[in-house]
UniProtKB/TrEMBL annotation:
Signal peptide: none
Domain of life from the UniProt record: Eukaryota
PANTHER family xrefs: COILED-COIL DOMAIN-CONTAINING PROTEIN 25 (PTHR13049:SF2), DUF814-RELATED (PTHR13049)
Domain NFACT RNA-binding: 1-96
Name by which UniProt lists this protein: NFACT RNA-binding domain-containing protein
Spans traversing the lipid bilayer: none
Coiled-coil annotated spans: 141-175
Keyword Mitochondrion listed: no
Protein family membership: Belongs to the CCDC25 family.
Length: 199
């Protein structure tokens, strides 16, 4: 079971979620999204909490809130979570320690905690299916962009070919006209005589 919360639900802002236990934490670790930010109380047994950012948002856009006083909260992007076979269930490490941030929370802000608790929803999601659906949608968007790019490139190529053919045709016409003018000059015939020859 996964618990979901909304921060500023009236604005449709952030989604916060956490697993019921360490086994669900494993699934959350495995099927996270690039927009997910992972939180954990440092040096204490606590839930893994995730905040899903909106597209274009950064780790600097994160609001704060906690249930206890005087705790350090560590957080990092989901992609920075490192899981090895030797780790216990629910345990994680980090690929890049420089991407891990820590914030000291001196005092619990009850207003934020209470507001979050009012939005709590319990679900049993298929995290793998959700991740695969997002991956498929992203691949479809990339394919569409690639098709549009190829179509644009093909139209540009055809336009260049058309312009090259027009230039070639114009050059041919100029060459023929020059030949005709040379011919006219060399024959010493009048324009009327040349027209009669042509007819």
């Amino acid at each position: 079971m996964v618990f979901y919360f909304k921060v500023r639900p009236e604005a449709g802002d952030y989604t916060i979620f956490m697993g019921l236990d360490k086994y669900e934490n494993e699934e959350l670790i495995k099927y996270g999204f690039p927009e997910d930010i992972w939180f954990h109380v440092d040096k204490m047994s606590s839930a893994h909490v995730y905040l899903r950012l909106l597209k274009g948002q950064t780790i600097d856009d994160i609001p704060e809130g906690n249930k206890v006083n005087n705790v350090d909260i560590v957080y990092t992007p989901w992609q920075n979570l490192k899981k090895t076979a030797s780790m216990d269930v629910g345990q994680v490490g980090f690929y890049n320690q420089k991407m891990v941030r820590t914030v000291r929370v001196e005092k619990r802000i009850n207003e934020i905690v209470n507001r979050l608790n009012r939005t709590k929803v319990e679900r049993t999601p298929d995290l793998k299916a959700e991740r695969e659906a997002v991956n498929a949608a992203e691949r479809a968007v990339k394919k569409q962009h690639l098709r549009e790019k190829k179509r644009k490139e093909e139209l540009e190529r055809l336009e260049k070919e058309k312009q090259a053919e027009l230039r070639s045709y114009k050059n041919l016409m100029v060459a023929e006209k020059m030949t005709s003018n040379k011919y006219i000059a060399s024959t010493k015939k009048s324009l009327q005589e040349l027209e009669e020859d042509f007819m």
